[in-house]
Q: What sequence folds into this?
């Protein structure tokens, strides 16, 4: 497997197997981690996106929907500055505890 | 601009300008649409991901955070079957209408 785990950070290359990376993503998400994926170059970004799409198929049967947030990261490889793409992969709606009731009822009353 | 709009579907190629596509994404998200982006090939997927990352910078100053969900789509181009990547881009927690009680009622009263 080409993806190296680094405290929740997977480094994906253009030669990484999307299915293997997908398995790693699914495992970490099931464990409750947020996963960071780092890719440098179009080929690597493509493999990372495929891995995320495949991992959805592993997770949706167990009721977990995921979404990803891409961002840029400046990194140094062999003394050269490169721009990497980082994907934060997380379960959907994981960060927002939905509290319904008071807010909704107040809105109804004033209407 | 290389991205063609199709009822909320942007087709991105490897020659698309990420900044232009990002502007289109930001505009549609601000209008309340969910955006679908379609890309075929590693170069196109790379440009699409860059566009999504750039659009985050356009939207976060106005308080909109977005996330994307990649999936595979089988399409036919010139009679040949190809696998495209589709990104569903949506505001974070968009499926949950966030109603803040006091703010909403104040707005109603002053209106």
A:
């Amino acid at each position: 497997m080409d993806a190296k785990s680094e405290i929740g950070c997977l480094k994906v290359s253009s030669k990484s197997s999307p299915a293997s990376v997908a398995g790693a993503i699914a495992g970490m998400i099931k464990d409750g981690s947020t996963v960071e994926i780092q890719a440098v170059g179009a080929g690597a970004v493509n493999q990372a996106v495929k891995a995320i799409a495949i991992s959805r198929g592993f997770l949706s049967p167990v009721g977990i929907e995921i979404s990803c947030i891409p961002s840029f990261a400046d990194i140094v490889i062999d003394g050269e500055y490169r721009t990497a793409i980082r994907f934060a992969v997380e379960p959907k709606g994981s960060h927002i505890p939905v509290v319904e009731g008071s807010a909704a009822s107040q809105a109804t009353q004033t209407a």
About this structure: DSSP finds three helices and five strands in chain A. Residues 1-6, 95-111 of chain A have pLDDT under 50 and may be disordered. The beta strands of chain A are 4-6, 9-12, 35-39, 66-77, 80-91. Helices of chain A lie at 18-30, 42-59, 102-110.
